[in-house]
Amino acid sequence: RNEEFFKDAKGIIVKTGTRAVAIDRQNKTVKVEDVASGNEEVIPYDILMIATGSKPFILPIPGVDLDGVFTIADLHKAIEIKDRIAKGKVDTAVVIGGGAIGLEMAEAFKDLWGVKTSVVEFMPQVLPRIVDFPMASMLTKHMRDNDVDIFLGEGATEIIGENGKVTGLRTAKRTIDADIVIMAAGVRPRSEIAVDAGLQTSPMGAIVVNERMQTSDPFIYAAGDCVEVVNLVSGKKFYAPLGSLANKEGRVVGDNMAGIPSTFKGAVGSFIMKAFDVCIGATGLSRDVALAEGYDADVALTAPSDRAHFFPTESIVCFQMVFDRRTRKVLGLQGFGPMGDGISARIDAAAAYISMGASIDDFGTLEMAYAPPFSAAIDSINAIAYVADNLCDGRLRKTSLGSFLSWMDDFSTQPDWLALDIRHPLEAGPFVEKFGTAKWLAIPYNEIRAHHEQLPKDKKLIILCDAGTRSFEIQSFLDSIGISNTKVLSGGFNMIRRIGVDWYPE
To answer: Nearest to residue 366, comparing CAs of 350, 348, 355?
Structure first.
């Protein structure tokens, strides 16, 4: 589809190789420049749309101009990268940035082309502000299991090279060899022409628009990665450079420019990506973002089967629901699991419900299509709402995954804690053998009622099972007989195994 196609089939004049230089709002004209010749032209408008998209953020470090340093801004860059690899010029690659684009590039380097790949991320986790620690940690382990090195909490300080060509990347902790460096440190709105025209922009430079996608000038509209929109969870404006939203916004602009009243209410910020044979998705606010926004945010974690447990292809999926304890409003949902509909279907359903301000109770009764090949009778999205409900009402007392892992790294941080492992003796036995009965007590789930008198009263019992369901049942039973010195480990061993820990018995 070239310029002739759009002219002949749609009646649209497309000017390729042409740069918009300036907007004259008073005279309603746009000055444009032919990139090849430098010739300028002034084009009048009745109504104008700005869809200038985003631009990669370039880190202010030495070496960004070396040959072999790329940003992923357009198809031409991707083709050039592919050509270098095809010609055997790339054995090692470093990706700066552990966001979605950076991780997808890392997967492509390793999975498609067999290139030794490293990811350097300044924050202490991948996908910061998109997902929280549990989901990010599971994705990190999976990437590492597939031979992608991931270095967290390390900022790139210099891209190094010889004879004008990149040879590596330096951080505060290490130097990594690289034949190619991909800078994937995020994007910023490409809004210079709007700023120069005096249109209102946000502090980060995104063009401010209303529900009709009008800018501060009613004769100028804007859409896509150059604008900010309303977050339907917080009610505040946010920057969401997503292709799915850009297309919806563009339709709204087209309607309004053609005289058809249309509005874009906002977004919750839904996201999903593939990483080798798993996927990770999220919608709404992460816990970290929710806390920063002032919510009384808490999380529920579950690790159930993605379909009926007896179905041959069932797999474990992991979910985290973010909610506000004061209002019971669901703020976000995150999921990690095998490639397929197990994650995407729940994220999509949650996105629709969250956009309408749904509560924990609404999620608990949300109707999902059921058949054993597709889901459990109590769907994952209902089950995690039940966990959140129990937390809000005080029936479930938990310890977070992070707190438990910190304790396992150093028992002195919580000297009165004792793990109560209610799994099968074959599962629990190696842990008792490794850590001793002073820190790890094993009583099977079906024997607790008969042997509860063995439980110490002077310890805080951390009840452990695979998914957390049996642990909650045991906590409820112990509460009923006056033993309340218990907490349940959120997510259980299903999540711990997927995060990966160095203390796990061999």
So the answer is: 350
